Amino acid sequence: MSAAQPTRRVAVVTGTRAEFGLLETVMRAVAAHHDLELQTIVTGAHLLKPSETWREVAESFDIAATVPMQSTQAPTRLDDASALGRGIQGLAASFQELRPDWVVVLGDRIEAFAAGAAASIGGIAVAHIHGGDRAEGVADEAMRHAITKLAHLHLPATAQSADRIERMGEDASRIHVVGSPAIDGLTGTAPLDDTTWRELGRPEIVILFHPTGRADEDEHTDAQAILDACAGRRTLALHPNHDPGRAGVLHALEAHAKESDELRVISHLPRPQFVGALKRLSKSGGVVVGNSSAGLIECAALRVPVVDIGPRQGGRERAGNVIHVESPHVADLQAAIDQACCLHLTGLAHPYGDGHTGERIAALLAEIDPSQSGYLRKRNAY
Q1: Domain 194-341 in CATH: superfamily?
Q2: Whole-angstrom distance, CA of residue 232 vs CA of residue 220
C-alpha cells in the first residue's frame, strides 16, 4: 500500500474464549502493521455471565463495539437461531458505524456466521480463517462451508482444506494456505510453573468436552461416562462451550467434583495458561480427553496424547497423537486412555503450519485491495 492511500480498517469479530485464543496473534499482527488499523468487535459467548471473557479481550485490545447475541439461559438449537438473527442485526449496525474495509472471522460458530452474513450482504469484504475444514460440531459443518460461500478471501489452515474450498467453486486466486493461528506462539509460551500446576491438581488427564447439540440428558450421560473412565487419575476439567446441551455436561462435572478429590473443575484458562498446562501435560505423560479441536491441533504441535470422543471433530485432519473412540463407553474409554499413554510422539508431524499464521494474514489484508473493481462480486468458478 502506498503512502498516499489511507490505512485499511480491519474489523476482527470474536465470539468465544477459545476462538479469541486463536485470533489473538492475528489481531496483534494487524495492529502492528503500519498499513492496517485494527477494530475489535466482541460478541456472542464473551458477553455471558458469569465468565464474561470479553474482559480478557479488553486486557489486550481496545474494543470498538460489543454485540449481544445469546442469553445466559441454557440454549436450544432454536435459541441459537434467534441469537444469530440478533447478531446479524447488531453486527450490521456496528459495521455501519465503523466502516471497515475487511471483516475477519474464524471457524464455524454462529458468531462468525452472523458477522460473515452481515458483512457480505452489506457489501464489505470478508476474510475467513480456517475455512474448508471438516468437523461436525453442532451445526458447524454447514455453517463453516456457508461462511466460505459468503467470504471473499479464504485463509485455510491446510492444503487439504484449501483444495476443499476450491472444489466448492471458489476462485483459486483467493485461496491462501496460511496455517492455523492455533500454532502461533506455542514455542514462546512457558510450561506452567510448579505452583500453578499444583493449584490445578497436577492433573494426569485434562477433560475438554463440549456438547454436540443434543438434549441435556444425553450430554450428561456421555460426560458421566467420561468422568467414570477417568476415575482413579488426577483430572482437570474445563467448562464446556455455550452450546445446546451445555447444562447437562456442566451438571455432571459439578456433581462429580463434589464427590471426588481427584477432580478439579474450572470455568476457563486464559490462552497462555492453557498452552502452559498442555506443555506440562506433555512433559508428565498426561492425556487430553474430550472432543475439542485443541486436541487435534495444539496437542499435535505440543505432542500431547489425546482421546477424541464422538463425532464432533469428525472429518478433521489429525496427527498420530489421537486415539478416536466413537461412543463414550467406560471400558472403551479406559482402554483408549491406556493406549494414548503408551504413544511415542517423538518426531510427530502435523499439517497445521509453522507458527507464523498471524503475520501472513496481516500481510494479505494489507496487500489485497477489497475496493478493486469486481472484488466483492461472488461467482462460482465452474
Answers
A1: Glycogen Phosphorylase B; (3.40.50.2000)
A2: 20
Mean pLDDT across 208-232: 95
- Residue 7 DSSP one-character state: P
Which range in 38-52, 68-82, 123-137, 151-165 is most confidently predicted, on average pLDDT? Answer: 151-165
Range from 60-69, 132-141, 203-212 carrying the lowest mean pLDDT: 132-141
Over residues 262-269, the mean pLDDT reads 94
Asked whether residue 240 carries a pLDDT value surpassing 70, the answer given is yes
* CATH 3.10.20.740 for the 8-184+355-367 domain, yes or no: no
**Residue intervals in the chain for CATH 3.40.50.2000:** 8-184+355-367, 194-341
Distance CA 151, CA 156 (A): 12
